[in-house]
User: What shape does this take?
Amino acid sequence: MEVIITGTGSGIGKALAEHYLELGHKVIGISRKNTIAHSNFVFLEKDLLTTADFDWLKSYVSFESELLLINNAGMLGSLERISEQAHSDINDVITLNTIRPMQLCQFVLQMLPISISLTIVNISSGAGKRPIAGWASYCSSKAALDLFSQTIALEEMERGRKLKVYSVAPGVVDTPMQLQIRNADETSFSAVGNFKEIYEKGELTNVSDLVKKFQRLMDVPYDGKVIQSLREF
Assistant: This one.
């Protein structure tokens, strides 16, 4: 199986890349930096904020065998109210969290023959299911990703493709993103205290446990349910 993962420089993306390398798969990592050294790892240095097409992937992916695509790269944006942003985060957050995963899904769906098994995992968030003050762009980007995932699953089922699609909320995971959240100004992001409390109580999920939960989801027979939370695993 070939595995494409975005955002492999750290956190969830790096952990998942290392997991699939340990299982013996070829992994293509798309990120701004590389922190993985492995003979089966292909690192492609790309800034997805400025990369609008994916034709260059044709040189690295065979599109002749089972494929797993994990759209993991993402950003929180400014942790402040939309009305108080001196520099709007809307374009960057929606581009990285929503538009690029949509475009990469489209590219893979067009390149991979319909008879070859394909699994798409878009890393979403519980923030895509409810509003959080100070996260307007982020919440919106993940809500859009959820519905996009459900829609392409429906479209490709109509075509008879061998496909599994998930939009996965990983939970509150101990990654650099959590550090960014805890360092936010409470006057701009009123929920910062909640995240500090989770950290202080040791309730963050570490990435190794996250990978185990992720693999349990992958091992469950697919029933067509796209929206998933790893808290349930």
